[in-house]
Amino acid sequence: MLCPATHAKAGGIPQEYDYGYQVYQEDDDRIRVESHYVRGKWNLLEGTSFRMQYLNDAISGASPTGALPGGTQPYVANVEDVRTGILGALSQQLGNHRLELELSQSNENDYFSNGYALSDAIELNQKNTTLTLGVNILDDTVTVPALGDRGKESYDFFTGISQLLDKDTEISGSLTLGFSKGYMNDPYKVVQRDEVFRTPDTSIDAGDGTFLLIPGIDVPVTNIYRENRPDSRFRQVLQIGGKHYFAAEKAALEAALRYTHDDYGISSEMVQLEWRQEVGEHLEIVPFVRYYHQNAADFFVNDLNKVNVATPADDPDGSGPNYSADYRLSSFDTNSIGLRIVGKLSENLTLSATYERYTMKGVGEDTSPSGSYPSANMLTVGLHLKF
Questions:
Q1: Which of 171, 173, 175 is nearest to 253 (CA)?
Q2: Taking all residues of the chain, what is their mean pLDDT, rounded to a whole number?
């Protein structure tokens, strides 16, 4: 298994490999992410296959802290980290069932995650219908500056169905129920509050044996505090999609709709369209667009000035009142438009390149300052080998 090419010469094991490189660059030199990934898949025995993935992300730049711009507190903070992740999955065909066990691990300077997943794909109706059931578990450790390690657990239960309507048309739908508990805060996000600091009473020697008393003076200050999200989250995700091949145009249209809701009070909608156009026998051009909208979390605020809390905790535990100024919990829209080109150089080798333009902006009343929302360019190149 560790040397699949050697086995392939002896036993003819079918195998596939992917390599990808992606650059994500936000405007104004904010966040930059360079990613490398390697994937492999081997069909080991009749009905048995193994796949793996290795991922490396290098992150650098500056990100909004949650403080408001133009004040005394830093509006952005520098970010630099490297994330590595590895995943392995073993699947086995048993009759009309395809069982898969997946193990994963991800490691950053301040975040460590172990993942476990089990799924079953059941082929029905002469393989025209596929029913999928599964569960995914994440066991995470978050290192919080000055406070140490905190734990978080996540559980996702999902079911899906895909149906071939005819030789050119397929529809699908899925439902995911997810529950997370533990440390749900972002340890680098803060919320500011305008307060008053009273200087202590002081006295000075007047030089004639008497003392002058200077009373305390009220000085306005802006303080920052750690955000305090609830210590649990229940979310629901419903997605439907469809594909249709147009023989005359030698093209396919793929569409997806997704709706999410959680007990943070966030609801979101996403629609994506993709047109896959064949150009000759060896080239495919794929333009795509995506739109996403969400409303703000119930506890989203830009500051604590109107939040009824005495002294915010240094180590928030999720108990109320909850508050966060993270722009990702505000009300916003995102738009993506892109183009992917796929070239088949031979029966074994395929190359691809993708460009995507991503924009985000606040909408409605519960928004962050406009400068919080990023726009970015993404470029991805990939190579696929199949033997």
A1: 171
A2: 94
